[in-house]
Amino acid sequence: MGPPELVVRVKRYIIEPERGFWVLRRSGHSKKIVSGATAESAKELALERLRPSAPCRMRVMAGVREEWELGHRDGQWVQVEIRRKAGA
Predict the structure, then answer these.
(1) Is 58 helix (H, G, I), strand (E, B) or coil?
(2) Kindly report the CA angle at 8 between 51 and 36, in degrees rounded to 5?
(3) Are 58 and 13 in contact (CB under 8 A)?
(4) For 56-83, what is the mean pLDDT?
(5) Neighbour-count burial of 13, counting CB atoms closer than 10 A to its CB (0-12 exposed, 13-18 middle, 19+ buried)
(6) Residue 4 three-state SS
(7) How far apart are CA 76 and CA 72, in angstroms?
(8) How does pLDDT run across 6-60, given as a tens digit for each residue?
(9) What distance in Å separates the CA atoms of residue 18 and residue 54, rounded to the nearest whole number?
(10) Strand ranges (DSSP E) for the chain?
(11) Are 14 and 33 in contact, with CB atoms under 8 Å apart?
C-alpha cells in the first residue's frame, strides 16, 4: 500500500462590483479583501494579495469574465478557461 493521498483544497475568490467599486471576496464570504475603482485595479491588487493563499482561483466578473489560478506561492498566475455548469 502506498502513501496516503494528499488532498489540497483550492480556495476560490471572486471580484465583483459593489456600490461603484470592485471588491475581492472569498467565495461564500462577505468580508472584503481588496477593492479598486475598476475591475482591472482590483485584479492587480488581488494577484499579489492572494499569493500567500495558494493554491487558489480568482474569478473576475467584469464584462469579459476571466478566471485565474495560482498553484503555489512561488508560481505564476495562469489564466484558465471558465468552466460552465451543465445546462447553463
Answers:
(1) strand
(2) 30
(3) yes
(4) 91
(5) buried
(6) coil
(7) 8
(8) 667 899 999 999 999 999 999 999 999 999 999 999 999 999 999 999 999 999 9
(9) 25
(10) 11-18, 21-26, 32-36, 56-60, 66-70, 78-80
(11) no
Cell numbers given for 45 = 491588487
Q: Which residues contact 18 (CB under 8 A, 6 or more apart)?
A: 35
Residue-by-residue DSSP string for 5-24:
PPP-PPEEEEEEEETTEEEE
Burial of 46 (0-12, 13-18, 19+ CB in 10 A): buried
- Pairwise CA distance, residues 2 & 43, whole Å: 41
Q: Which three cell numbers stand for residue 31?
A: 468580508
* Cell output for 65: 469574465
5 forms beta bridges with: none
Cell numbers found for residue 59: 474569478
